[in-house]
Amino acid sequence: MDSTLVLIAAVVLLALSFDFINGFHDTANAIATSISTKALTPRAAIVLASTMNLVGALTFTGVAKTIGGKIADPMKLEHGLPIVIAALVAAIIWNLITWYYGIPSSSSHALIGALTGSVIASAGLSAVNFAGFLTILQALILSPVLAFCIGYIIMSILRFVFRSANPRSTNRMFRFLQILTAAFQAFSHGTNDAQKSMGIITFALIAGGLQNTHDIPFWVKLTCAIAMALGTSVGGWKIIKTVGTQIIKLKPISGFASDVTSASVIIGATIIGQPVSTTHVISSAIMGVGSAKRLSCVKWCTAQRMITAWLITLPITATLAGLVYLIASILF
């Protein structure tokens, strides 16, 4: 029991560290548009995002239950706690690498890929619930496509409605509206991303025999919410620069369109209990909004670099987690 408690404590510490890193890694995406259009100052955007992330993280639990039980059954894994530790270590390493180079890669892909890889390394392919894994993968793939299409449609409608409006008054109005959409964006991020760490901790509690249901304890919700809010307060300026300036040249109206699009897709996924990548959704929404004006507005070289990172994250983190698990099993 003593060793089990030590391992669970390690999982909690790593999960909260992952949440903290996620706060400045992925939340940077949520506030990048409002900062780049000068709707909010960086300080105001971070305070707003931290607050709304905290509120959002405490509101839903469906995604946490999906992460905690759909990839593998923690009650059937002999080495459940080391599996989770290896997954978290791999996901954290990948998040820090992509943050350092300013690449808006997906924390969701990193965590899901890493957990799958460590399960395979420990118990083989048969231990993975591929039906549940494919459901999660489907949501991760479809959500950015949906965000691109909706962003294109919303921006096309806005361009038609405001085609004859005074540019100065239009910019002033949409800068104000972006304050509201930035809050909505940060709230939606909290409802989905913070739950991933909640699910991982619950997975560990079940694997360690401390609970036998997928219900999320309140202390888990609260600590994960606080960790993400604290991470958000640190900020992620490299990611903000990439998302806010290197995909398209954002104006208040296009920033508003991309915020509404991505927040709606993320909150919709949360309601049905599916984890999605806020990075993918926000970046795809911005691409869709830019394409509504003309395809040349989108800096496709940056988009290509992002898509490459998206494609390699799952296999790299799965391999990395498997290696971490195997090395740890040899050493300990």
Describe this structure in words.
- There is one protein chain.
- The protein is mainly α and 332 residues long.
- The protein has one domain.
- 79% of the residues lie in helices and 0% in strands.
- The chain is built from 13 helices and no strands.
- The model has no long low-confidence stretch (mean pLDDT 85).
- InterPro entries: Phos_transporter.
- Keywords: Membrane, Transmembrane, Transmembrane helix, Transport.
- Pfam families: PHO4.
- It is found in: Membrane.
- GO terms for molecular function: phosphate transmembrane transporter activity.
Task: List descriptors.
mainly alpha, 13 helices, 332 residues, single chain
Offer a quick outline of the entry.
By secondary structure, the chain is mostly helical.
Q: Please work out how many helical segments DSSP would assign.
A: 13
Number of strands: 0
- Please bin the fraction of helical residues: over 70%
Question: What distance lies between the first and last C-alpha atoms, to the nearest angstrom?
Answer: 17 Å
Q: What spatial form do the alpha-carbon principal axes imply?
A: elongated
The major β-sheet equals: none
Please tell me the total number of domains: 1
Mean pLDDT, all residues:
85
Q: What radius of gyration results from the CA coordinates?
A: 20 Å
Which class of secondary structure composition applies to the elements?
Answer: mainly alpha
Q: Which sequence of SSEs, written as H and E, runs from N to C?
A: HHHHHHHHHHHHH
Strand content: under 5%
Unreliable sequence segments: none
